[in-house]
Amino acid sequence: MASRGLFIVFEGLDRSGKTTQAKELVKTINQKSAEAGNPNPAAIIMNFPDRQSVIGKLIDQYLKKEIDLDEHSLHLMFSADRFLKNQMIRESVANGIDVICDRYCYSGVAYSLAKGLPETWVRSSDVGLPKPDAVLFFDVSPEVAAKRGGFGQERLETSEMQKKVAAVMPTLRDDAFWKTVNADGDMETVEKEVFRIYEQLDRQKPFESLEKI
Ligand code: T5A
Ligand code: NA
């Protein structure tokens, strides 16, 4: 029987290279699969927020400061945006396709805790989503991130918010499935580290749902 796909989440601070590396990993997996004669895609990319979804469009407007939203409502919208992809993730994995995901519920929890929303409430709204086989935490030093360009114009792109998120993110870590990627290196070095971790992941263990975050 063909093996299942993997569900891999990339998390980390702004400009740690998550989007760059998520695209690169999908490209590498699909190239290798095509070389092996597989006509179908072996990996897909997914990103949260999905600014194209019905809910993601509103989140996008909030991030661009075009609309204001109550922070509780926003938190639930980020979660709801992920639940819109619940089935798609599960079906892809069941069909042997790897899902490489750029940010997930850990961003949701970290940003909302950084804003001061109540912890138990914040940690509950993503329960039931697919559990990642691995969370790759992109660890970038503030000095290196600063060299990758200044903050953009979006609402959460401030050094104050980044400091708070940087303090919260490590508290969400679960060593059972979180792996740290040294994101300070050049693109090729980071790419190799990501692929090395990818190759070691186990497709045999059962695919689970998140019972807690
Ligand atoms: N959010 C998100 C919540 O509040 N709740 C939630 O539930 C979720 C899911 C949107 C915002 O929403 C918040 C968090 C965010 O504030 P976003 O759209 O993912 O999040 O944010 P972006 O601004 O698109 O992405 P990031 O700032 O997080 O950057 P990345 O993806 O980590 O970095 P990347 O790959 O775009 O690279 C940044 C720059 O560095 C260069 C790249 O070319 C690029 O110019 N670079 C490198 N340069 C040198 N060496 C390397 N190794 C490099 N890797 C990348
Ligand atoms: Na990004």
TrEMBL record:
In its UniProt entry, the species of origin is given as Caenorhabditis tropicalis
Instruction: Name its GO BP terms in alphabetical order.
Output: dTDP biosynthetic process; dTTP biosynthetic process; dUDP biosynthetic process
Q: Name one GO cellular component term.
A: mitochondrion
Q: Which keywords fit this entry according to its UniProt record?
A: ATP-binding, Kinase, Nucleotide biosynthesis, Nucleotide-binding, Transferase
Q: Does the keyword DNA-binding apply?
A: no
Q: Which residues form the Thymidylate kinase-like domain?
A: 10-193
- EC nos: 2.7.4.9
Q: Which PROSITE patterns match?
A: THYMIDYLATE_KINASE
Q: Which HAMAP family match?
A: Thymidylate_kinase
Name of the protein in question: Thymidylate kinase
Q: What class of enzyme is it?
A: transferase
